[in-house]
Amino acid sequence: MQPQVPPLLRTAAAYAWRLLVVGAAVYGVFMVLGRYHEIGVAIFLGMVITAMLRPLTGLLARLVPRGLAVALALLGSIVAVLGVLALVGAAVAGQSTTLVREFRDGVDRIQRWLEQPPFRLDPHALEDLQSKIGDYLSSHRSTLLSTAVSGAGRLVEVGTVLVLAIFTSVFFIHAGDRMWRWFCDQLPERGRWRWEVAGRAAWRTFTGYTHGIVLVAGTNAVLVGVALFFLGVPLAVPLAVLEFFAAFVPLLGSPVALAVAAVVALAAKGPLIAGVVVALIVVIGQIEGHLLHPLVMSWAVRLHPLVVAVSVIAGAISAGVVGAVVAVPLVSVCWSVRVALRAARTPGPADPLPEPGPEPGPEA
User: Does some domain include residue 12?
Assistant: First the structure.
């Protein structure tokens, strides 16, 4: 007589092997993405470009053919981005001489400040630190040069990813709905409706998140740029641009960018202005956390702040900066797909398939 297996143990074993299968599948997906992460990043950027430019393309398509509308939207966006980069370069070049003098004076001012109470740091310790930095740079010159060369190689990879992202966005904007419809037509008819529902929910969430995070980042950048300009902190425009891109990492990016601004203010204008910039970090953090995110992002991303924080940290650990940027929209899309599929009714044998919604594909 065989012993009876307790129902709880039987249920736990059933869930355990299913979790093992799911874990193995997820691990395999991440292994594949790790081998071809440049392609994954390019497709992600292409979808971001599509989400941002599709409304503009729709407006232009009322006046000109759609292919020309896509070209005008992309070329106009590229010119705008290059113009911002040129403005940043001009700002840095125009202030280079002043910046060198201010930073040299600022370093001396910080050194004198650290020598006074309450720090009372030994001045010889700072001199030793400066000499050690110089010795390190001179002794590791070849290593630094090889790092710079490898950085140039990474720059080529970044350029390739950007070109591929623009290339894919052209097709997503122009015919993304037809591409998605073709993909759904290849699936078994019985389960096709699930992909249609999931596609609509995923693209709606991704588009809402992209529009929301760009609006939040732009607002933060304007606030930081205006505040730094009136405080007289150098490099106000480059620091505002840094704030814009840092805001794409929720909860963590904006404070890090503003900390860089505080260091620049400390070196150039002294502790008082640096303290004002630190206060600015707190104010902008409150505005972003209690005003912008609830108003702009709540309808697109319904995640608890703890989930957002854990997602960002996990993404950063697994894939660095790219993982930190991609983590929140990925988790948001997965959650919205789960909610949409739970809310959708499974059709019976005699029930018709749901009517297709508004363009669920990458262009929808």
Answer: no
4 CB burial (10 A radius; 0-12, 13-18, 19+): exposed
Lowest-pLDDT range, 55-64, 127-136, 340-349? 127-136
Say which residues have a Cβ less than 8 Å from residue 92's Cβ, sequence separation at least 6.
99, 235, 238
Quote the number of domains for the chain.
1
Q: Which among 185, 144, 225, 170 has a CA at the least distance from the CA of 360? A: 185
Considering the domain boundaries, does residue 217 fall inside one? yes
Q: Is the predicted pLDDT of residue 341 greater than 80, yes or no?
A: yes
Cβ atoms within 10 Å of 225's Cβ, excluding its own = 18
Cis peptide before 118 (omega within 30 of 0): yes
Q: How far apart are CA 311 and CA 317, in angstroms?
A: 10
Flag whether 219 is in a domain.
yes
Tell me whether residue 65 is in a domain. Answer: yes
pTM above 0.90, yes or no: no
User: Could you tell me the CA-to-CA distances from 6 to 12, 56, 122 in Å, in that order?
Assistant: 10, 61, 70
What are 88-118's pLDDT values in tens digits? 777 767 666 666 666 666 666 666 666 666 6
